[in-house]
Amino acid sequence: MSDEIQFDTGDTGDAALRMALRQLRRDHVPGRDLWPGIAAEISARPARRSAAASRFVPWAIAASLLLAVALAWQLRPLQPRDGQARLITHEAQAMTREYQGALKVIATGAPSDAASTPALRELDASAAQIRGALARDPDARFLLDRLRHTYSLRLALTQRAALS
Amino acid sequence: MNRLSRPTVLALALCACLGSPLLLAATPIDQTRPLDARGKVEIDNLKGRIQVRAWNRNEVRITGSLGEGVEKLVIEGQGDHLLVRAQYPKQIGAWRGDRTGPTDLQLQVPLRADLDIESVSADIDVDGVAPGELSIDTVSGKVVVAAAPDHADITTVSGDLQATLNSGDVKVETVSGDALVSGRLKGQVHGETVSGRLSIDSNGENLRRLSTGTVSGDTSIAVGMVDGGEIKSQTVSGDIRLRLPRNVSARVNAQSFSGDLSAPGATVRKEEFGPGSSLDQRYGSGAGEIHLETFSGDAKVELK
User: Fold this and answer.
1) DSSP β-ladder status, B103-110 and B269-270
2) What is the DSSP string of B241-285?
3) Across the strands, what pairs with B197?
4) Which of left, alpha, beta for B284 (phi over 0: left; psi -120 to 50: alpha)?
5) Cα–Cα distance between B84 and B104 in angstroms, integer?
6) What is the tens place of the pLDDT at every residue in B215-224?
7) What does the alpha-carbon distance between residue B167 and residue B82 come to, in Å, rounded to a whole number?
8) From CA B195, how far away is CA B137, in angstroms rounded?
9) Each residue's pLDDT tens digit, B58-105
10) Whether B234 contacts chain A with CB within 8 A
């Protein structure tokens, strides 16, 4: 390429490098006065822009509004309903973890076939049903009560099996 | 006299060997102990039957028969407390197979003596008593009660419960057993099942508070309410049917995720987006509060 800078590797290398760098910084002076053309271009451009903008203003406003609504939706403050749903979901998850831990401890003393008894199977199926319902309707606090009750029964009956 | 053939003799001997334990199993019981009129009787029988009747004596009479393989009948205490327990070998229980026979306990108790009855599979039949406290707990036994206790607490796992109670404070709970409670119910009633059917009928009496809960069991309620009373009924997938007197004074609020709601005169509101519906309706001056909640079950209010 013509712009490629060649470096000598001899004693005169430093001087050649300085010359090359100096050439890089060299300003090119235009052959004629460019300003009148630039000034004419600037004075003509606003008229064309205002015409184009007038066509896009309604769309721009609509897009801005849409964006604002979308942002407002995303950044909206948490409604009580959302907060409650989140709280119930966390509560159900925590309760399930505690239940599973407790069941693991209690079940070690119960007969191995205790979990297959109809009543305990019924409770397991019911707990699964409630968890499924909570996943679909996390606002329903009463489902949390049902889940708590079902877990309590399951633990109590497992403990009874362990003690019998 | 004809001589018996050898095979016949052997067969008879075999029958005698097999039959003798069964004959010996029916060990008769007949014991009587003193008990205060307001004393407490604890009864514990693993399998067979427990029958309790009232009489006008300050005594407890225990009759019936002890099952095969049962170690002994334990009778302890006197005065204000008596324990009656069929003591089975320790290696058997509700969750383990066993070869012991059923024990039939029949008790006559002072009319107002408190009762605390436990069984595993033994059916329980209580009739004509009026204790301060009536407590019944069984796993798979069927429970039939006709009594007038101040407080009743009846729990089964898979056993069905049929209770006729004149009482001001009732609590019933089952897992898969049906719980049918009726009688002159006043004060408060609490009923819970998992999959069992739950039915509560106060025979026209007004309750102060009623709460029920099921997972998949249907709930049927027919009660009146005192002014300021409260009814709360919840179910996941079961149906709720609430029958109220036509002159009831209460505000009804019902909510469901995907079930159908209905109440006389009420307009059901549907969620604008997604599932969910609710209704609010006032009857009379709206003195009481009624809350019905379901996930997928239907809830229906009727005025009769």
Assistant:
1) unpaired
2) EEEE-TT--EEEEEEESSS-EE-TT--PEEPSSSS-EEEEEEETT
3) none
4) left
5) 12
6) 999 999 999 9
7) 24
8) 18
9) 999 999 999 988 999 999 998 999 999 999 887 655 445 567 899 999
10) yes
Note the pLDDT of residue B226.
Answer: 96
- Look at B293 and A31; give whichever has higher pLDDT: B293
Mutate which: A129, A145, A163, vs B, most B CBs within 10 A: A129
Provide the token pair at A25: 């910084």
Tens-place pLDDT, residues B19-56: 444 444 579 999 999 999 999 999 999 999 999 999 99
Tally DSSP H helices, then E strands, for chain A: 5, 0
Q: How many CB atoms lie within 10 A of CB A104?
A: 9
Token look-up 């003195």 returns B287
pLDDT at A10 over 60: no
What are the C-alpha distances in Å from B124 to residues A34, B44, B45?
A: 111, 11, 10
The ipTM assigned to this model is: 0.82
DSSP per-residue codes, B93-118: BTTB---PPPEEEEEEEETT-EEEEE
**Could you write out the DSSP letters of every residue in A89-150?**
HHHHHHHHHHHHHHHHHHHTTS-TTGGGSHHHHHHHHHHHHHHHHHHH-TT-HHHHHHHHHH
Residues composing chain B: 304
Mutate to test the interface with A, among B91, B95, B120, B138 (most CBs of A within 10 A): B95
Work out the pLDDT band at A109, boundaries 50, 70, 90.
confident
**Residues forming beta bridges with residue B86, ordered by sequence position:** B73
Q: Which residues of A fall within a CB distance of 8 Å from B236?
A: 126, 129-130, 133, 143, 146
